[in-house]
Automatic annotation (TrEMBL):
Listed Gene3D superfamilies: Class II aldolase/adducin N-terminal domain (3.40.225.10)
The protein's name in its UniProt record: Class II aldolase/adducin N-terminal domain-containing protein
Record-annotated Class II aldolase/adducin N-terminal domain positions: 64-248
InterPro entries membership: Aldolase-II_Adducin_sf, Aldolase_II/adducin_N, Aldolase_II/adducin_N_sf
Any one GO MF annotation of this record: actin filament binding
Length: 301
């Protein structure tokens, strides 16, 4: 029997550059036929609509994808009693947002159960479900939507691995290709001021996120992510929670003497330039969206 190799020669150093790639990060990730007639679906045409008909279509699309995002979170086991919320700006009433009702399981979310919240934090009297909302959810999300006008969606819940890693008050390391989603794209909120029942705490979290970050680790609390779409927001959250699990596993192995490797800044920046692009993150949730719509048609009710 041939001896088992115990080492390998070092690979030659090689770094890629976006200068040789398409200017559109989405177009770097797929290829159709030679004739160029096979393409992936882009955002629906009405996503940039300004007319009433288009905006009404967008409202229904936003509500559907919000309900599906909750089903996705339910599938991942993120339900934790009354905790957890995702909000999305209404396409027509821009200072209002849609969110989940108080005490309804993520896995049972439907379009008709979604609540429209006014700027003052009350349930809209005529549009949406007439159900109570989570007060902490309003304080956190209203502050973020106010501070970040370019953000359409924000999501927060108490996922298992996110909670565990949050106790360290540290960002996740860039140790895997998937973790490049968080390269120069994460904040840590170090102050745990108790359950969020004051507007000031929501404002502090929004301030910590800054003008650009889409991901935050709330120390001793959990995770929070933002998105141009609810799809981006929900997928980013799931990816961050998984990276927290990876980080905990790596730390356990490192404690036993195994050295961990951090991705080089140049390579992380190159990868982030493609995978952090909002349309790419949006498409990452698409397989889950299609699966849920196929297997759980009740979400349309």
């Amino acid at each position: 029997m041939a001896p088992i190799a115990t080492g390998t020669a070092p690979a030659p150093e090689f770094h890629q550059s976006v200068s040789d790639l398409s200017k559109n990060p989405l177009e770097r990730t797929w290829r159709g036929n030679r004739e160029g007639t096979l393409k992936i679906d882009a955002y629906p045409d009405f996503m940039h609509a300004t007319d009433e008909e288009g905006l009404l279509k967008k409202r229904e699309w936003v509500k559907l994808h919000l309900a599906v995002a909750f089903r996705f979170w339910g599938k991942l086991g993120y339900g934790e009693g009354i905790s957890g919320h995702i909000t999305v700006r209404d396409p027509i009433l821009r200072d209002h947002f849609w969110m989940n009702p108080f005490g309804v399981h993520f896995s049972s979310m439907t379009i008709s159960k979604l609540v429209l919240v006014t700027p003052e934090g009350y349930v809209h009297p005529t549009l949406g479900a007439q159900l109570p909302i989570n007060m902490a959810g309003f304080y956190i999300h209203s502050a973020i939507h106010h501070a970040r006008p370019e953000v359409e969606a924000a999501g927060h819940c108490h996922s298992l691995h996110g909670k565990a890693w949050s106790a360290f008050g540290r960002p996740v390391d860039i140790t895997t290709q998937d973790s490049c989603l968080f390269y120069d794209n994460q904040a840590v909120y170090h102050n745990f001021g108790g359950i969020v029942l004051a507007a000031e705490e929501g404002a502090n979290i929004a301030k910590t996120l800054g003008p650009r970050n889409k991901c935050a680790i709330l120390q001793n609390h959990g995770l929070l992510t933002l998105g141009h779409t609810v799809d981006e927001c929900a997928y980013l959250f799931s990816a961050l929670d998984k990276q927290c699990k990876v980080q905990l596993m790596i730390e356990a192995a490192a404690a036993g003497g195994i050295k961990k490797s951090i991705i080089d800044d140049e390579d992380a920046k190159f990868t982030a330039a493609t995978i952090q692009y909002h349309e790419n993150v949006y498409y990452n949730l698409n397989p889950e969206v299609q699966l849920i719509l196929e297997r759980e048609p009740g979400v349309l009710n």
